[in-house]
Design a protein that fits this description.
Distance between the termini: 37 Å
Number of strands: 7
Helix content: 25-40%
Strand order of the largest sheet: 1-2-3-4-5-7-6
Largest sheet: 7 strands, mixed
Order of helices and strands: EHHHEEEHEHEEH
Number of helices: 6
Structural class: alpha+beta
Radius of gyration: 18 Å
Amino acid sequence: MGTQRLIVRGLRCDDRSSYLEVFGDPAIASFDDYELVEEADVDEVVRAAIARNALGGDECELAVVLATDPDDAIGFMTLRPAGTSPDEESVSVGYHFSRRVHGRGLATEALAGLLTWWRSVSSARVYAYIDPENLPSRRVLERVAFIAEGERVLHGKRELVFAAPDRNSVSEAALARDQSVTVAEANSKRARAKPRRGSSQAP
């Protein structure tokens, strides 16, 4: 699955250094309840995830890479059963990205692309659960038109519950994102071509 700038692919053994960079980072883990991945364990953890993917079960873990550098994973996404209710077919989506690519809209783009693909293969409803203090993650969900549906407490931890939009809303959110990127790039080019009077520019 791909977007304008990204490819979302299956996890590979050579993703282990990127996996450690993301899931071994205390700052990234601060809003989640998983244990930090240690360097001594990363090979085993990645191989176990690849094995789960190969079984084709309920849980899937994916790597996100730039289209210009498909061997360097910059983030990871998961799809797993949401466990909302016995009579509802649903999955939860998770996403974690390296701090070196934060602030570039890549998580938003990857999530919009994943949802568009998911809607083409499944009718299961998609949820996301986030820490109430995780404002960057909340902004990602809101940009892709996720809808706040309340709260839940899991293992003593309070989480906000968001539900994915329908197909049309996903497409509209992706279009709005692409348009905002285009405008930002145009403004950046104009600023470089014609610096403001009295301002300094880096070379």
